[in-house]
Write a structure and sequence with these properties.
Blueprint lengths: L2 H18 L4 H14 L1 H6 L4 H13 L5 H16 L1 H6 L17 H10 L3 E8 L7 E5 L11 E8 L9 H15 L7 E9 L2 E7 L7 H15 L11 E7 L4 E2 L2 E2 L7 E10 L11 E7 L5 E7 L7
Parallel strand pairs: 1-3, 4-11
Antiparallel strand pairs: 2-3, 4-5, 6-9, 7-8, 9-10, 10-11
Keywords: Membrane, Transmembrane, Transmembrane helix
Pfam families: PASTA (PF03793)
InterPro entries: PASTA_dom
């Protein structure tokens, strides 16, 4: 791995680790840089540079050239334990490992920042697709897994393919923007002034096109069902729902529900289907969203179709 790329990705966490091991904050950055420089050759050859740098950093702090720092730390900790024996139990850190969060609907930049907030290191593996580049498709380990202090999470994300894609790039951009609007609020797919919301073919409410996804109409009708579905354990290697996007005229029924017919909408429309895997081959039906445009090309209708519950 390139040394400077590693430094940029991991220096902040390494400095925090050095402080946790007892090094004064004003010395931590200098020591981390020194250790990285000393381990440059091994970093380039290492599959995971943390396996090289973290032990070297620990040794530099706790052992040092003469062991003097170790002795100082042990004496200091013993004194603190005696003087503040009662309060020390109160301020003990929670050392339980962080849990891998759901990254569904996020871009690689958003996902990386979310993981960094939990002190989780990550790397990106790109998969060429005809979807917008930089969308997270899944992770290893999957959501809900414990992540060790020295683990590096792998993000599987889309990248631009070398082959020619169908002429539906605009629909795919809009579909992923809609998912980001629901999940993180970081995108707007272009709404009309009023947006009619449907569930299983029936109109439920009308929301303002400028309203955020966490306002009551959006949240109860669309956002909560989508996030609830996305949080289910996914029976696929990605660890999250697979997103399928198409552009055309919706069928008369979806998941056993009649097609929504927003007033003023034009066809064709953009369809987004989320599947977690595990559905039977005879009645497979994922959570489905249709995005309907008005004559001006703005989204004026959103139809959500819910899959049948197991056993129904």
């Amino acid at each position: 791995m390139d040394v400077e790329e590693y430094r940029a990705a991991r220096r902040t966490r390494l400095v925090e680790r050095a402080v946790e091991l007892g090094l004064p904050a004003d010395e931590a950055g200098v020591l981390v840089d020194r250790v990285i420089e000393e381990q440059r050759r091994r970093i380039r050859r290492a599959e995971d540079p943390d396996d090289v740098v973290v032990p070297a950093l620990r040794d530099a702090i706790l052992v040092g050239p003469t062991g003097a720092r170790t002795t100082t730390l042990v004496v200091l900790l013993a004194v603190v334990a005696v003087v503040v024996a009662v309060p020390i139990a109160y301020v003990t850190r929670d050392d339980s490992p962080p849990v891998m969060p759901s990254l569904f609907g996020l871009t690689t930049s958003e996902a990386t920042r979310a993981l960094q907030r939990d002190d989780i290191a990550s790397r990106v593996v790109e998969v060429p697709q005809c979807n917008p580049a930089g969308q997270v498709l899944g992770s290893d380990p999957p959501p809900g897994s414990a992540v060790g202090a020295d683990d590096v999470v792998t993000l599987i994300a889309t990248s631009t393919p070398e082959w020619r894609c169908p002429d539906d790039a605009a629909a795919r951009e809009r579909a992923w923007a809609f998912l980001r609007f629901l999940v993180s609020g970081t995108a707007s797919p272009g709404f009309a002034q009023g947006v009619r919301l449907f569930v299983d073919g029936e109109e439920v409410t009308v929301v303002g096109g400028a309203e955020a996804a966490d306002t009551p109409g959006w949240q109860s009708v669309v956002r909560d069902p989508v996030l609830d579905y996305a949080s289910r354990p996914a029976a696929n290697p990605l660890g999250q729902p697979v997103v399928s996007i198409s552009y055309g005229v919706p069928p008369p029924t979806t998941c056993g529900h009649p097609r929504a017919t927003p007033a003023g909408a034009v066809l064709p429309s953009t369809r987004v289907v989320l599947t977690t895997g595990g559905e039977s081959s005879t009645d497979a039906c994922g959570l489905t969203i249709d995005l309907f445009d008005n004559v001006l090309g703005a989204i004026s209708g959103v139809a959500l179709y819910t899959p049948p519950r197991p056993g129904t």
